[in-house]
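Hi, here's the filled form for the chain we discussed.

Project: internal
Contact: R.S.
Residues: 195
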Amino acid sequence: MVDDTAKENVNQVVDNGKGESGERESGPDGAGRPAGAGPDGGGRGYELPLLLFGGFRTLIDRLHARLATEGHPDLRPAHGFAMQAIGARGATASEIGRRLGVSKQAAGKTVDRLLALGYAERADDPTDARRKLVHLTPRGYAALARSAAIFDELRAEWAAALGADRVRDLEAALRNVVPPETAFRLDATSWLGAP
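And the returned structure, exactly as it came back:
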């Protein structure tokens, strides 16, 4: 969360309960709003990315809990990103690293784990004998197909809880503010880790 210090917003971790006392403060128009509310009466600016991340994390955690009960107990979120980076045509470890925004070595470790779990395999590149391509195995494709079906089920649960129109509106709104080149990028780890 964000803590206000000397009239500046400073990003730092603080107690979840801070600023949630139910008190009201006066806004620029003199109207009362809950203490800590933003100028539009909604949440503070830092809450939006945290809530979006929380929603993402909730969906991913529930996906992996389901996958674990359905024969994929060792799959982790990083594995799903890596399998997407491998793609239908296969990729080298360097290509996987670039697509994920990580080093070739980090991508190699993830690939090695996918190989050990039976989700991927290495093969010679038919166009260049010096290169090794990583391909998904039938088990890898099955895990991705099952993931897609579970995501559809999780979306349906959100639609049942929030209303189908609200979920469609949320998706449409996010499509309007998220640049198309960013919407389906796999390299989130590049900004979470060290350069």
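Let me know if anything looks off before we file it.
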